Structures are given as C-alpha cells and as structure tokens.
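FYI - complex with iron/sulfur cluster, inputs then prediction.
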Amino acid sequence: MDNTKEILNELSALYPDAQPALHFKSPYELLVAVILSAQCTDERVNKVTAVLFEKYNTPEKMITLSQEELEKYIFSCGFYHNKAAHILSASHDILEKFEGRVPPTLAELKTLAGVGQKTANVVYAVAFGGDAIAVDTHVFRVSNRLGISEGNTPAKVEEGLCKAIPKELWSKAHHYLIYHGRRVCHSQKPDCGNCTLSAWCKFYKK
Ligand code: SF4
C-alpha cells in the first residue's frame, strides 16, 4: 500500500517551518555554500561563509582570490582543494556565460563547473523557487527506509520521489526528509521508538 500521502502529512505537521539551514543572501552565496556543504555540516559551512562573504560575495570579487587564498578561507570544510577549484571555475563561468548572474534554470545551472545534479536542484528550488528534489545523504536514507522511493543511487531515489510526490511539494518534501534524517531517523541509530512515522515505515516493519 502506498503511504506517501500519510507520510507527507505527518512530516508537514512535524516540521511546518522546514527551511534550508545554510545562510545566504543571494543565489550566488547559496551556490557557494552548497558547493562547500558536500561532506560537511551546514553549521561549519555557515561559520566559513560568514567570514568569506564579508569580502567575497559575488563572482567578480571571488575571482580576485587565487586558488591558494580561497583554500585558506574554506580549509575547515574539507576537500578544500576541489571545492576551491569548483567555486572559482563556476564563478568564471557565471561571469563569462551568464553576465555575472547565477542562471535560474536547472539545465543552465548544471553547465557550471563543479555543479552536479544535487547542487543544481538545491539552488534551483531554494534560490529560484523551482520544483526539484535534491537527494543528499539524509533524503537518500530516509526515503529508502520509509519506502517512499527505494533505489541504490541518488538519481534513482530522485526519480522515484518525483513520481511519488506531487510536483508542488517536491521542494518542501526535500526539507522535510532532511529534518527527519537529522532529528530522528539517524544514520546509525534511528530513533524508531519515538518516530511518529513508524506505522508506515518499511524499515521499521522489517
Ligand atoms: S521508523 Fe525508524 S527507520 Fe522508519 S523513519 Fe522512523 S526513525 Fe526512520
């Protein structure tokens, strides 16, 4: 039986104010923050961007930094070498191909260096109000456990979620699933005893 509707209703009651945890004031700041957030906590990214964005909050300003200088700012986010390269390449692309503005479509976002499906989906949904479901580690795990969308790759889970959930709820559902993964359905020790979704959860029933 498909319990997606009941699950979404319960998630919306649990997390009515679900919203992105990353701090940003423009699509460009969000793009940089999302690139930095790979394999890193949002709290750590917010600390780093609070300092970085004081001076370097546009692609024009960002490319005045050398790779090494940018790495010093973002070192604590991990994978700093690749992340710095991606931020600088994407900034150059934005300036050269999109007149200095982060492009507002999924197809264009994905042409930026270092911007994959997940990053493009987040920026498209959060910065531009588009309909998209970004599948990060929490969305991947919780969707599989609940049985809303089962798949062994983020792409398969995204495809399943897009089929199971009405389009107008995609962006909200993304935040609901992240909140639930962070607060209750932890990776190692899911708190099933206190989870109000257990009646519909495939993992719990097993
Ligand atoms: S019942 Fe357990 S596994 Fe299922 S969603 Fe809740 S916490 Fe996660």
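The mean pLDDT is 96. Residues 73 and 172 are 32 Å apart (CA to CA).
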